[in-house]
Design brief:
- This protein is α+β, with helices and mostly antiparallel strands and about 375 residues long.
- Among the domains are: about 140 residues, no CATH class; about 70 residues, no CATH class.
- It contains 14 helices and ten strands.
- The strands form four sheets. Strands 2-1-6-3 form a four-stranded mixed sheet.
- Strand 4 and strand 5 form a beta hairpin.
- The longest helix is centred in the N-terminal third of the chain and has 35 residues.
- The termini are far apart.
- Bound molecules: zinc ion (ZN).
- Zinc ion (ZN) binds next to helix 9.
């Protein structure tokens, strides 16, 4: 092949690569602007076909022509999508069972599990879909309480609530991604990261479905990255602040793991024996084998290992796999530091939760939040 022909071929390939990158970037921009300006629910089929691989296949560009970074993205996306089904919820998050008070006033929607609990306890009954004289949707399930809830006769538990909170409690919620509206695989998303929420006092943890929403795996990935970034920032700032005021010399930036130098050394000896034994001087091989034998003898119950028998492949492999990074018991996880800094102070916890709600709205800009959901809704059940 002549040099000029090769140059023409290379130029052609370069042009295809440049065009594919331009098209890819343009498509990303179009997707971003479309999802913000015209949020419309996607079907599960849309989600399944919406990947980089099918995009390039539709353009007639073979994967062999794609640059490595796009191929890596495609492989990453395929791996993530294959996991999505396993990570997603196996049943709908919202059952939307309507709960009525004894006078048949609508109180709220609850899960089927909770409705069955009321029935099992004998404090509620399944009932017909008639609320205060109005015939309602008979495709839904209804239970009627057999006792008067908080507030006595003529009131119901939502009477003291704001309009948005009442709307949130009483409106059936759709089992779709709150960001893009897709009805494919879904994941539970904790608006206040679970590692913080799980450390809150009990009253902030129970019955707070308000701050758990549905996201599809793609939207979950987007907010997850932003959430981790914010958590790292919060925790980093706190560690700096605590180190400045620390009087006992404790380093709040200490590592969660400590490297055991002896284990690291023995492991290095075993790796060297496996990989480079043939090229190592005899004395070095003998010294490394001695180190590995001593280590293995220490792990034996009787503390003895045959000095004359050659080290087996399995013995060397087991030492190569030794974990030399051990847990640092002094390390305090960032989530604990952050929640401790709130001092169980109700006002601080409320401000903290509302900040996370704002963060979620600002990052995701969801088009399908449940009706009545609001940053300003109470952060604790039963408090306005
Ligand atoms: Zn989504």
């Amino acid at each position: 092949m002549s040099n000029s022909n090769r140059s023409i071929q290379l130029a052609g390939l370069g042009a295809i690569l440049a065009a594919s990158v331009m098209l890819y970037l343009q498509r990303q921009r179009n997707r971003a602007s479309q999802s913000k300006s015209n949020p419309s629910p996607k079907s599960s089929d849309d989600i399944g076909n919406d990947n980089e691989l099918s995009y390039y296949q539709n353009l007639g560009i073979s994967t062999a022509s794609l640059p490595p970074h796009i191929l890596r993205n495609i492989a990453k996306e395929l791996r993530r999508k294959s996991k999505a089904e396993f990570l997603s919820m196996k049943s709908p998050m919202y059952d939307n069972v309507f709960m009525l008070d004894p006078d048949r006033n609508l109180m709220c929607t609850i899960s089927l599990k909770k409705a069955k609990w009321y029935i099992r306890k004998g404090i509620a009954e399944w009932t017909s879909p008639i609320i205060a004289g109005d015939k309602l949707d008979d495709t839904c399930k209804y239970i009627r309480l057999l006792f008067q809830p908080n507030g006595g006769k003529g009131t119901n538990c939502t009477s003291d609530k704001s309009d948005s909170e009442r709307l949130y409690l009483q409106t059936p919620k759709q089992n779709i991604c709150v960001s893009c509206g897709s009805n494919g695989h879904h994941m539970r998303h904790y608006i206040v990261p679970y590692s913080y929420r799980s450390l809150f006092p009990d009253e902030y943890k129970s019955h707070m479905s308000h701050d758990i929403v549905i996201l599809c795996p793609d939207c979950h990935l987007n907010i997850d990255t932003a959430t981790k970034r914010r958590m790292n920032q919060l925790e980093g700032e706190l560690r700096d602040e605590l180190n400045k005021s620390s009087t006992d010399g404790y380093d709040y930036w200490c590592s969660p793991v400590i490297e055991d130098t002896y284990l690291y050394h023995v492991r290095s000896c075993a790796i060297a024996l496996v990989k480079w034994r043939e090229n190592m001087p005899f004395e070095k091989v003998a010294s490394h084998e001695r180190e590995v034998r001593e280590f293995l003898a220490g792990r034996q119950q009787n503390g003895i290992i045959d000095e004359d028998a050659p080290l087996t492949k399995a013995q060397l492999q087991s030492v190569c796999g030794v974990n030399y990074r051990i847990k640092n018991d002094e390390y305090i996880p960032g989530s604990e530091l952050v929640v401790q800094s709130l001092n169980c102070d109700g006002d601080k916890i409320e401000a903290f939760i509302k900040e996370w709600r704002r963060h979620f709205i600002n990052v995701v800009r969801p088009g399908f939040m449940p009706r009545g959901w609001s940053v300003d809704n109470p952060v604790i059940c039963g408090r306005s």
